[in-house]
């Protein structure tokens, strides 16, 4: 029997919320066990459930992936990611408790607290403009 690949239109896919977590002039990045195309290092992120806001999803995903409790500060923007075709909502968050670690070993290989000047080493293709602007301010001493 032939197997046909089924593609789901972008509009039918659930959007993703990404948490932009800044602490002590560093931003939290995670490396997925399985890269999404060219994406390896990224912000803690996951699909927005039907019963939650993008802010709630960013908080939940950060806790599930890294064990870190965060609170949303503001919505930085949203876009269709140019590499994945996925709708992404970017949420600025502040840590509220706990210490970041690889809490979801099935999903993550490692995490890092990254300084402003180190971001291109982890994300060489650049960041979404509003996220970069937020980090340009939040990561400067």
Characterize the structure shown:
Strands 1, 2, 3, 4, 5, 6 and 7 form a seven-stranded mixed beta sheet that branches. By secondary structure, this protein is α+β, with helices and mostly antiparallel strands. The chain has helices at residues 54-66, 119-122, 129-138; strands at 16-23, 26-36, 39-42, 45-47, 69-80, 87-97, 108-114. The protein contains three helices and seven strands. A hairpin with a 2-residue loop joins strand 2 (26-36) and strand 3. Residues 1-11 have low confidence and may be disordered. It is 19% helix and 40% strand.
In short:
The protein is an alpha+beta fold and 141 residues long. Helices cover 19% and strands 40% of the residues. It is built from three helices and seven strands, in the order E-E-E-E-H-E-E-E-H-H.
What's the assembly state of these chains?
Answer: single chain
Number of helices: 3
| Contiguous runs where pLDDT drops below 50 for at least 5 residues | 1-11
Number of strands: 7
Mean pLDDT across all residues, rounded? 90
Give the % helix.
Answer: 10-25%
General shape: globular
Give keywords.
141 residues, alpha+beta, seven-stranded mixed sheet, 3 helices, 7 strands, 19% helix, 40% strand, globular, disordered N terminus
């Amino acid at each position: 029997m032939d197997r046909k690949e089924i593609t789901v239109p972008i509009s039918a896919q659930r959007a993703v919320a990404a948490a932009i977590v800044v602490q002590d002039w560093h931003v939290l990045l995670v490396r997925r066990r399985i890269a999404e195309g060219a994406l390896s290092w990224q912000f803690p992120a996951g699909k927005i459930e039907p019963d939650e806001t993008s802010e709630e999803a960013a908080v939940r995903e950060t806790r599930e992936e890294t064990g870190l409790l965060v609170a949303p500060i503001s919505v930085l923007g949203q876009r269709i990611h140019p590499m994945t075709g996925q709708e992404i909502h970017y949420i600025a968050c502040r840590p509220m408790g706990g210490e970041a670690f690889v809490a979801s070993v099935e999903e993550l290989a490692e995490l890092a607290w990254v300084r402003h000047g180190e971001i291109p080493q982890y994300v060489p293709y650049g960041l979404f403009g509003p996220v970069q602007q937020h980090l340009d301010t939040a990561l400067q001493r």
